[in-house]
Amino acid sequence: MATIRQIAELAQVSTATVSRVLNNDPTLSTSAETKERIFAIAEQLGYKRQRLRRQKQEMQRAEAEIGLLFLATADEENQDPYFKSVRRGIELQCEALGLKISKVIRGDQFSDLAEVSGLDGLLVVGSIEVGDVLEAYPNPERVVFVNHGEDQHAYDSVHLNFEGAIQSAYEHLVQLGHEHIGFIGGVESIHSLRQPGEFRRSEEHRYRAYVKMQSRYHHSYEAVEWVEDWSSQGGYEAMKRILAKPHQPTACIVASDHMAVGALRALHEAGVQVPAQMSIVGFNDIELAAFVLPPLTTVHAYTELLGKTAVNMLVERLEGRVAPLQIKIGTSLVERESCQAIQ
């Protein structure tokens, strides 16, 4: 079996340097070329092959430079539990795997995109035009799209299983006897980096799943309203429009908890009792959902897991995976007091 002394002699370095390189000593100051030479010689000599392979991967991860491209501005991230949770998942997994986040760029910082070309990998969070991303970073095999508004079959992507989420919410309401089920959705837009402020509308995943469930159960009733900014104010105004319709739903699925909070306020002001007169289901399971009156039945989205999974996918690419991969993260329905059976 090869020894550290033999490796040191062939690499023309000290045994201490070989030992520190093979053990990925983060305090060691030596060139990447020297490290690669030591690993190559150790591999040729058959030095503890499995351990060596693992240590080499750890070294390469530690030296890789990863970039984050966020659609959200810093203020939007701080105010939105979704973006904060995805970011936390990314940072936790990078730390666990020894990866370094070298650059964070936001959708309103287009001029900084020139700095991403030299990165080893890029995580894109939010609905940004794929062409714009690849123009700035023309390495599609080292990009992971996180919760993009459109399905990305040619690239690595990870997003929530919206179809399964809405199916669980809809079936829950059907089991409670509801047939007149409305929907409040947020407008989904794909944003341009080359032309800041420009965007195009795409089909919202939750709405597509809602339509499929209506068809499955042969429900002809439809009350659909859209919110431009996914806000509580938007949910409030959307519910007021629904309440102005001649025939109101007995239940409503709302595409985010923030909008559901606004919808609850509109129902309260109109004297519509929840859940006696209308049941409400939200989406995301933000902290506030458990504390509104009544506590909100909602779909729990594992947003931190989105970030962690994206990092794992990027590492797989850096370590040789060739085929693009698309992953859906499941959700779970959290039943609280905003839904009840038809009386």
Automatic annotation (TrEMBL):
One of its GO terms (molecular function) is DNA binding. Transmembrane segments: none annotated. Residues 2-58 form the HTH lacI-type domain. It holds the Pfam family LacI. The keyword Transcription regulation applies. Keywords: DNA-binding, Transcription, Transcription regulation. This is LacI family DNA-binding transcriptional regulator.
